TrEMBL record:
The name this protein goes by in its record: 6-carboxy-5,6,7,8-tetrahydropterin synthase
Pathway assigned to this chain's UniProt record: Purine metabolism; 7-cyano-7-deazaguanine biosynthesis
Record's catalysed reaction(s): 7,8-dihydroneopterin 3'-triphosphate + H2O = 6-carboxy-5,6,7,8-tetrahydropterin + triphosphate + acetaldehyde + 2 H(+)
Record has DNA-binding as a keyword: no
GO biological process annotation, one example: tRNA queuosine(34) biosynthetic process
Keywords: Lyase, Metal-binding, Queuosine biosynthesis, Zinc
Length: 118
Protein backbone atom coordinates (compact mmCIF):
# COMPACT_ATOMS: atom_id res chain seq x y z
CA UNK A 1 0.00 0.00 0.00
CA UNK A 2 1.23 3.51 -0.83
CA UNK A 3 0.33 6.64 1.09
CA UNK A 4 1.27 10.27 0.51
CA UNK A 5 1.17 13.41 2.60
CA UNK A 6 1.68 16.86 1.04
CA UNK A 7 3.21 19.94 2.64
CA UNK A 8 3.76 23.49 1.43
CA UNK A 9 6.35 26.13 2.13
CA UNK A 10 7.41 29.50 0.77
CA UNK A 11 11.09 30.21 0.33
CA UNK A 12 13.64 32.32 -1.50
CA UNK A 13 16.63 30.93 -3.34
CA UNK A 14 19.08 31.46 -6.14
CA UNK A 15 21.00 28.91 -8.16
CA UNK A 16 24.72 29.78 -7.91
CA UNK A 17 25.97 27.41 -10.62
CA UNK A 18 23.71 28.22 -13.58
CA UNK A 19 25.63 31.22 -14.92
CA UNK A 20 24.91 34.92 -14.57
CA UNK A 21 22.65 35.09 -17.63
CA UNK A 22 20.26 32.42 -16.33
CA UNK A 23 17.29 34.07 -14.59
CA UNK A 24 17.54 31.62 -11.70
CA UNK A 25 20.99 32.96 -10.86
CA UNK A 26 19.16 35.95 -9.36
CA UNK A 27 17.37 35.88 -6.01
CA UNK A 28 13.73 34.81 -6.41
CA UNK A 29 11.15 32.70 -4.63
CA UNK A 30 8.78 29.78 -5.02
CA UNK A 31 5.71 28.35 -3.34
CA UNK A 32 7.04 24.85 -2.89
CA UNK A 33 4.95 21.70 -2.52
CA UNK A 34 6.50 18.61 -0.99
CA UNK A 35 4.98 15.15 -1.26
CA UNK A 36 6.21 12.52 1.17
CA UNK A 37 5.49 9.02 -0.14
CA UNK A 38 5.51 5.89 2.03
CA UNK A 39 4.99 2.26 1.18
CA UNK A 40 4.34 -0.70 3.44
CA UNK A 41 1.85 -3.14 4.83
CA UNK A 42 -1.39 -1.93 6.38
CA UNK A 43 -1.30 -2.62 10.10
CA UNK A 44 -4.21 -4.94 10.94
CA UNK A 45 -5.23 -3.10 14.08
CA UNK A 46 -4.69 0.59 13.19
CA UNK A 47 -5.54 0.29 9.50
CA UNK A 48 -2.56 2.56 8.81
CA UNK A 49 0.66 2.11 6.85
CA UNK A 50 1.93 4.99 8.98
CA UNK A 51 -0.20 7.48 10.91
CA UNK A 52 -0.28 10.79 8.98
CA UNK A 53 0.38 12.48 12.32
CA UNK A 54 3.71 10.63 12.53
CA UNK A 55 4.66 11.84 9.05
CA UNK A 56 3.81 15.38 10.11
CA UNK A 57 5.91 14.97 13.26
CA UNK A 58 8.90 13.74 11.22
CA UNK A 59 8.71 16.47 8.59
CA UNK A 60 7.57 19.34 10.83
CA UNK A 61 11.02 20.35 12.11
CA UNK A 62 12.36 20.46 8.54
CA UNK A 63 9.37 22.48 7.42
CA UNK A 64 10.21 25.07 10.06
CA UNK A 65 13.76 25.29 8.74
CA UNK A 66 12.53 25.75 5.15
CA UNK A 67 9.41 27.91 5.39
CA UNK A 68 10.06 31.63 4.79
CA UNK A 69 13.81 31.09 4.72
CA UNK A 70 16.56 31.80 2.23
CA UNK A 71 17.38 28.23 1.23
CA UNK A 72 20.99 28.92 0.20
CA UNK A 73 21.80 29.73 3.83
CA UNK A 74 20.69 26.30 5.10
CA UNK A 75 23.51 23.81 5.65
CA UNK A 76 23.42 21.27 2.83
CA UNK A 77 21.24 23.46 0.57
CA UNK A 78 23.88 25.84 -0.77
CA UNK A 79 22.73 24.86 -4.29
CA UNK A 80 18.97 24.53 -3.68
CA UNK A 81 17.67 22.90 -6.85
CA UNK A 82 14.44 20.92 -6.59
CA UNK A 83 16.53 17.75 -6.97
CA UNK A 84 18.86 18.59 -4.10
CA UNK A 85 16.03 19.77 -1.83
CA UNK A 86 14.33 16.38 -2.40
CA UNK A 87 17.55 14.54 -1.45
CA UNK A 88 18.06 16.80 1.59
CA UNK A 89 14.53 16.07 2.87
CA UNK A 90 14.68 12.33 2.10
CA UNK A 91 17.99 11.81 3.91
CA UNK A 92 16.73 13.60 7.02
CA UNK A 93 13.35 11.91 7.41
CA UNK A 94 14.28 8.36 6.31
CA UNK A 95 15.71 7.50 9.76
CA UNK A 96 12.40 8.51 11.36
CA UNK A 97 10.16 6.91 8.72
CA UNK A 98 11.58 3.55 7.57
CA UNK A 99 8.64 3.08 5.16
CA UNK A 100 9.66 6.23 3.29
CA UNK A 101 9.65 5.44 -0.45
CA UNK A 102 10.18 8.85 -2.02
CA UNK A 103 10.06 12.62 -1.76
CA UNK A 104 8.74 14.91 -4.50
CA UNK A 105 9.58 18.61 -4.48
CA UNK A 106 7.51 20.84 -6.74
CA UNK A 107 8.92 24.28 -7.57
CA UNK A 108 5.84 25.01 -9.65
CA UNK A 109 2.78 22.86 -10.42
CA UNK A 110 4.57 21.84 -13.66
CA UNK A 111 8.13 21.24 -12.45
CA UNK A 112 9.23 18.78 -9.79
CA UNK A 113 11.95 16.40 -8.69
CA UNK A 114 11.20 12.88 -7.45
CA UNK A 115 13.83 11.13 -5.29
CA UNK A 116 13.46 7.54 -4.11
CA UNK A 117 16.82 7.21 -2.41
CA UNK A 118 18.73 6.02 -5.46
N1 LIG B 1 16.24 20.51 -13.22
C1 LIG B 1 16.01 21.72 -12.67
N2 LIG B 1 15.93 22.80 -13.46
C2 LIG B 1 15.68 23.99 -12.90
C3 LIG B 1 15.50 24.12 -11.52
C4 LIG B 1 15.62 22.96 -10.72
O1 LIG B 1 15.49 23.00 -9.48
N3 LIG B 1 15.87 21.79 -11.32
N4 LIG B 1 15.22 25.33 -10.99
C5 LIG B 1 15.09 26.42 -11.73
C6 LIG B 1 14.77 27.72 -11.08
O2 LIG B 1 14.56 27.54 -9.70
C7 LIG B 1 13.61 28.50 -11.68
O3 LIG B 1 13.22 29.52 -10.80
C8 LIG B 1 12.42 27.63 -11.96
O4 LIG B 1 11.34 28.46 -12.21
P1 LIG B 1 10.50 28.32 -13.54
O5 LIG B 1 10.32 26.93 -13.93
O6 LIG B 1 11.08 29.24 -14.52
O7 LIG B 1 9.13 28.75 -13.00
P2 LIG B 1 8.60 30.18 -12.97
O8 LIG B 1 7.29 30.08 -12.28
O9 LIG B 1 9.57 31.09 -12.36
O10 LIG B 1 8.46 30.45 -14.50
P3 LIG B 1 7.28 30.95 -15.37
O11 LIG B 1 7.57 30.39 -16.72
O12 LIG B 1 7.38 32.42 -15.29
O13 LIG B 1 6.00 30.42 -14.78
C9 LIG B 1 15.31 26.38 -13.17
N5 LIG B 1 15.59 25.09 -13.68
ZN1 LIG C 1 13.89 28.99 -8.56
Amino acid sequence: MKITQAFHFEAAHRLPHVGEKHRCYRLHGHSYRVEVNLEGAVDQRSGFVVDFFDIEAAFGPLLERLDHHYLNEIEGLENPTAELIAVWIFDRIKPKLPQLAGVKVFETPDCWADYDGA
